[in-house]
From TrEMBL, chains A, B:
SUPFAM superfamilies: P-loop containing nucleoside triphosphate hydrolases (SSF52540). The lineage of its organism: Bacteria, Bacillati, Actinomycetota, Actinomycetes, Micrococcales. Residues 67-266 form the Polyphosphate kinase-2-related domain. This is Phosphate--nucleotide phosphotransferase. It comes from the Bacteria. It holds the Pfam family PPK2.
Length: 286, 286
């Protein structure tokens, strides 16, 4: 539990990083480590220990779905380039059984996708019962790059915030625990990470000239994110803004949010829906 | 390489476990560990070491797809209940970046799926470029349970072997490396594993009374598998029969097949398709 005595945290990310009324993105220090008293070294050990906890809870969560529990989790990951989405997928999500995970990377929409409402391509990828769904980028692109690059008329962008809230309310009503994460990277740290990708030939494949074009629009993206937080951080689908200059902090924070979500379900091993003694007898005779 | 001096194997699984002409399933000892001179203890260490190799190769494989390489891998997993498919997914596939993996579990077909040809529900799940696709059960169910339980007329079952070969040839022509694995479990070991699921309440969710019904048909399933091997082990899509009484052996063998497939691609880091110096300059100015 977030309230357990042995917590790593002075204040849990679920509390300290949650976007509430009056939240101001510009006030967040991207190099900070809110609520975590440790350093990189302790964070590595804490992440490994947390991975075991997460893994055990995820198995129990999945087990319940096999006996009819409809609950599911959706983690939405949004960030500027190099902020560390890939590392979250690899080092946090990668710790649990891949059978229990559904990752969808939303790229630039295809012409076919663009011919439909922006939520059309999203809906087929919402998680199944017992699954942890992860959106690597998401429907929020349509109010982020959509706004910054004016890919749709202003009135349409406006409409989308409400459409998103309605969509997410629908998911919440369908027993989805929604966790929306923005990895908040500083401009200097982004520059260093892009530089590294350019300096190391084995990292070139991760670089795209468009990354610099986007970087030049960072102030506009931050404005667009602020609007997203103002308009779409709801009790059913809250945003968490995670300072991301320190990768170890961001990973630990996302892991904590997921563990909290699972603990909040008060899971136990599902009870057999068959007659155990009868089946033992059948097995013995087989 | 399979031929590297430091190989763990006396004979690589890619050779010793491959189904060729004249293969007889009944001759396989489910408790054996073909080609591996070590024991459980060394296998655990070898699996961990192999996981790093596999992880590194998978990243390079994925990287190439980002620059246009169309190759993909499809691992088909077939087995009787408790044979260890889940453990392969967790401990072998789980070692690589989840972003590079597409797992599909094929359950009992829905009415909608049954209203179409048996390959209809399979096709949408073939792996994308740069991905390792895993079928947890597959189109082979339609000639296994399909045959054993007479879910389709004999002539239709016959037709399916050819349809499968045509389908897999199409995938191979589309740059898919196909690896088909049957985890071959002994009847006694299956009994022990089912017993454990019944004895431990936290394992009850993995048990289904139907598992015993299927167990009673094991001889018929083995006949059906033999026919599958006779009819569908092709140069482009070979079967590998892996003795599975020892989980550690089966995992090491599947990992070896995947590593071999990746090594066989002669991968290197992709070369940038942009002007690196120009981008460095742009970044510096940004």
């Amino acid at each position: 539990m977030g309230h357990a005595a042995e917590s790593l945290w002075d204040v849990e990310p679920g509390e300290s990083l949650r976007v509430g009324p009056g939240f101001v993105l510009a006030d967040v220090d991207t190099g900070s480590t809110p609520g975590y008293p440790g350093d990189k070294k302790s964070a590595v050990a804490d992440l490994a220990a947390g991975a075991e906890v997460f893994d055990g809870l995820q198995e129990m969560f999945f087990a319940n779905s096999q006996l009819g529990d409809k609950r599911k989790i959706l983690l939405v990951l949004q960030a500027m380039d190099t902020a560390g989405k890939g590392g979250i997928l690899r080092h946090v999500i990668g710790a649990v059984d891949p059978q229990g995970v559904q990752i969808t990377a939303f790229k630039k929409p295809t012409p076919d996708e663009l011919a439909h409402d922006f939520l059309w391509r999203i809906r087929p990828h919402v998680p199944d019962a017992g699954k942890i769904g992860v959106f690597d980028r998401s429907h929020y692109e349509d109010v982020l790059i959509g706004r910054v690059r004016e890919l749709a008329p202003a009135a349409e962008i406006e409409r989308r915030y409400d459409a998103i809230n309605a969509f997410e309310r629908e998911l919440a009503d369908d027993d989805t625990t929604i966790i929306k994460v923005m990895l908040h990277l500083g401009a200097d740290e982004q520059k260093a990470r892009l530089q590294e990708r350019l300096d190391r030939p084995e990292k070139h494949w991760k670089f795209n000239p468009g990354d610099i074009d986007e970087r030049l629009l960072m102030p506009q993206y931050r404005e667009a994110y602020q609007l997203v937080f103002d308009r779409t951080s709801t009790p059913d689908a809250p945003w968490y803004v995670i300072p991301a200059d320190k990768k170890w902090y961001a990973r630990l924070a996302v892991q904590s949010l997921l563990i909290d979500a699972l603990r909040g379900m008060n899971l136990s091993w599902p009870v057999a829906d068959f007659d155990v003694e009868h089946e033992k007898k059948r097995l013995a005779e087989s």
